[in-house]
Amino acid sequence: PFSRRAKNHVKYPSNDITVGGLAFGGVFAPGGGNLMKTNKGKSWEIMLLNAVAYQRRFTPNDRLSVGIGIDWKNYRLDDNLRYYKADDGAMTIDTYGEAVSEQSSRIKTFSWLVPVIYERRIYDDFWIHAGAVLNFNTYASVKTKYRIADLKYEHFDDNIRQNVVTCDVMAAIRYSWLGFYVKYSPCNVLKSSTGLKFQSLTAGIILGF
């Protein structure tokens, strides 16, 4: 991570302010049943884990940080499937039901993050990280686009009743500034009243962590 403190002559325990954890990962949706098939090449997470963080360094090999970050996720379905929202707010997944082209259907979320992460040096510049991430999911929308013959259709809704507060468990391993992370939330992305239940699982690379 990027730190404002010089690395020489550090006395432990010490306090620091850091920035880092830019991540790019794939998004999966466990718990969603047979129809909840995210498109593996087009469902992504972009995350800045620590836009700013307070870090407590207990020893040269042990750290604990609490930060604030931001996160975007995109749950895009396979091309033959679409999200459908009924007038009463219920959400389902179905096929298009007719010959379409140029189709896509996704749910997008934006969240403010509060990560609490413990870090441990295991050898040289190899580190392991584990902790929890509290998510404040302030925005979510569903968007479906398709074409039938010469006509293009688009359905958009940004009132899909996401769960506003959720929690992830996170683990990562890194060497120097490059790492690999996995993050899983046992909480449903949407409220149970929508009828569409699935959780979030992401994995990818993380930089400057």
Structural summary, described in words:
With 209 residues, this protein is mostly beta strands. The chain contains no helices and twelve strands. The chain has strands at 2-3, 14-28, 44-59, 62-76, 81-85, 91-95, 101-123, 126-148, 151-157, 165-175, 178-185, 200-207. The chain has an eight-stranded antiparallel barrel. A hairpin with a 5-residue loop joins β5 (81-85) and β6. The model has no long low-confidence stretch (mean pLDDT 93).
Write the layout of secondary structure elements.
Blueprint: E1 2-3, E2 14-28, E3 44-59, E4 62-76, E5 81-85, E6 91-95, E7 101-123, E8 126-148, E9 151-157, E10 165-175, E11 178-185, E12 200-207
Antiparallel strand pairs: 1-2, 2-3, 2-12, 3-4, 4-7, 5-6, 7-8, 8-9, 8-10, 10-11, 11-12
Tell me the β content.
over 45%
Helix tally equals: 0
CA-CA gap between termini: 5 Å
Strand order of the largest sheet: 2-3-4-7-8-10-11-12
Query: Strand tally, please?
Result: 12
> What is the approximate shape?
elongated
* Unreliable residue stretches: none
The radius of gyration computed from the alpha-carbon positions, rounded to a whole number of angstroms, is 20 Å
